[in-house]
Amino acid sequence: MNSISGHEVVFRGFNIATMDPNSAEIKCELSGEPLGGLTQQLEYGTLNGTAIGVEGGKIKWLALERELDRNGLTFAQTVNGEGKLLTPGLIDCHSHLVFGGNRASEWERRLNGCSYEEIAKQGGGILSTVSATRAATEEELFQAASKRIKSLLAEGVTTIEIKSGYGLDLDSELKMLRVANRLGSEFPVSVEATLLAAHAVAPEFQGNPDGFIQHVCDSIIPQSAESCSAVDAFCETIAFNLAQTERVFERAKQFGLNIKVHAEQLSHTGAAALAANMGAISADHLEFLSDHDCATLGRHGTVATLLPGAFYCLNEKQKPPISALRENQVPIAIATDSNPGSSPVLSLLLMGNMACNLFGLTPCEAVAGMTINAAKALQLDQTIGSITKGKQADFATWHVHSPAELVYSIGGNPSAGVYKLGERTQF
Ligand code: DI6
Ligand code: FE
């Protein structure tokens, strides 16, 4: 018995890149024939001549169009793709989208030879955005982030992770988390809010990082736990050390929160392996990751999230160890790291292009990095990230034929419409 009722919204006439690693096993709801057998491009999980039935915001079935026609089935509504590409909605699994002010003047100083670390040590960098974020009202932060999120949504993003970390006191961190969650309720996008209180030492605790970490563990994590799903920390010579990072993660785990980490961005600290050993869902940046760390990530299933925007904007030279990540079967995700300092980026597709051109990913790895592996980086791969029966009907449609074209060209948004829970988005 098939489960086709006629009440579905049907998407047909699309060239579908399912990004489902098990796409070869997908079967037609009507005939039981394998759908993946129709294509040579199993790595993108490409399906042609296949319709998607959506009901209640979810993918109810996949079926051959000719079988639907042969059985004379009619439906409540049909969306005809006319040959356009359909992919899972894109997922930006690492962003700092909520912040006050901007840091264009620091960028000018960096162009004149001042380093990111020097600016941070002089009280600029993250702390200058902390001042601007504390000074901004909640409404001002929401309006500024709304403008930014629209750029991402217009390019196919249907889920985004947004970090706090520019408040660094309880009230300001909670203000940031509220703005992040409000973006998810007012725009057609799912927001995963992450607490990043351990981003920099708060000005009130200058010279006393251990005291600040104590405050994060005693007060900020417990009082933010209901407003976020994960806790992140910046482990770096200019931020927190390994022992401080571990304290933050231990506390987060006591509240049942996921952990993720900014690690091995400017130097090797061992934070990625520490986090993986503690069960982190992702380790992010990773330019200085060692081959041994790659094995640790692989063993624990921790996702390596690469952030080529920060690498590019900081003019870094050291690249993440792509071959060792592959050898250890570490899932690789790609994200914007959208933030006012190291990655003022509002295009996830551009990050896919940079991941290929700068880091040597294949276009297929880049697209997987913005879909199925980004879902894994948020521990949401049971519900989003691929075109799979039972998952959410979050779709991006495109004026291109092949998925590689999404990351091949730069600029000129190829979006042909976005669907969140089966509904065409408007914002
Ligand atoms: N690494 C980053 O890329 C951002 N935070 C971090 O820990 C940069 C944040 C900033 O410069 O404002
Ligand atoms: Fe970041």
Q: Give the biggest beta sheet.
A: 8 strands, parallel
Heteromolecules bound: 3-[(4S)-2,5-dioxoimidazolidin-4-yl]propanoic acid, fe (iii) ion
Stretches with pLDDT under 50, minimum 5 residues: none
CATH architecture label name of the largest domain: Alpha-Beta Barrel
What's the CATH topology label of the largest domain? TIM Barrel
Rg from Cα: 22 Å
Number of helices: 16
Shape field: globular
Q: CATH H level of the largest domain: which superfamily?
A: Metal-dependent hydrolases
Find the count of extended strands (DSSP E, 2+ residues). Answer: 18
Structural class, by secondary structure, is: alpha/beta
> What is the number of domains?
2
- Give the CATH level 1 class of the largest domain: Alpha Beta
Beta content comes to 15-25%
End-to-end Cα distance:
40 Å
Helix content: 25-40%
Spatially, the strands of the biggest sheet line up as 8-9-10-11-12-13-14-15
The overall pLDDT, averaged over residues, is: 96
